[in-house]
């Protein structure tokens, strides 16, 4: 498969810059794989497509307000983006301007409540950074950190919690699992009242999710790795749904990647697990666990567009995307949703 097979024209005005006022009132495109139909709904209508006993699996990771603006001892402005905790208060960070932040450079953030020193230049140009502070690191981040919004969003976010799912629990992501942004507490309650089972996985989304594919033969693309875990109680919910002949619906590509990583090739059942996944799903892949997917509209030539094409078929997905452009759906992280079943 060629990279250009996954390209489409998207007017820039359709890239959503701000979240919609009410989470569950974004638009929803519904794709029925068997009938090859395309329907246009509102997200809260998802309840009409889910049956009692179906299991939706969501990613309960929480986004760190990981973008920090600080000053060097010289007074020069710098920007840090926390990527992952190496140990204790030592983090791997992307820093700007990189050529000015050498080993030994000291930086102060906020009003001095957070300080940093560059320990090492890591492969790829990131930095190993030692942070020092008084108090609780996450509380300081909540106070002075900003959400690490994707590069295609140019508007400031008014409320940090709008780039967070309502069920976000475990901090560790550099980006939100955006399919989950459409759910409200009220909608989740209504789903449970209908008998829909809700299970969780945790996958901490890395900044690599925005890394473009740079090879024309997509099979040569090296997929980024992300850390995940799933608890036994959630394993049981998923496997019970399968035993009862009900569907497993992944909320987002991150949940999908976890489920496909940990499921058995024989019967699609999952097991309790923790680890890293670099699974790359593209057309030709045989799904083992999931029966459906709730997802957003993805960037041209992205691995996420390849994943949804593997599930629904490339031509059908490209037809749906062209229709979404024609009908002026909102695209990407703060955009509208798609349900494939």
Can you characterise this structure?
- Helix 5 packs across helix 6.
- This protein starts with 26 loop residues before the first strand and ends with a strand.
- It is an alpha/beta fold.
- Helices cover 19% and strands 28% of the residues.
- The protein is globular.
The counted number of beta strands is 17
What is the number of helical segments per DSSP (H or I, 4+ residues)?
Answer: 6
CATH fold topology of the largest domain? QueA-like
Along the chain, the helix and strand elements come as EEEEEEEEEEHEHEEHEHEEHHE
Radius of gyration over all CA atoms, rounded: 21 Å
Distance between the termini: 24 Å
State the CATH superfamily name of the largest domain: QueA-like
Which stretches are low in confidence, meaning pLDDT under 50 for 5 or more residues running?
none
Structural class assignment: alpha/beta
Q: Tell me the strand percentage band.
A: 25-35%
Mean of residue pLDDT values: 96
Give the CATH architecture of the largest domain: 3-Layer(aba) Sandwich
Shape label: globular
Question: Major sheet: size, sense and barrel closure?
Answer: 9 strands, mixed
Number of domains: 2
Q: Into which percent range does the helicity of residues fall?
A: 10-25%
CATH class of the largest domain: Alpha Beta
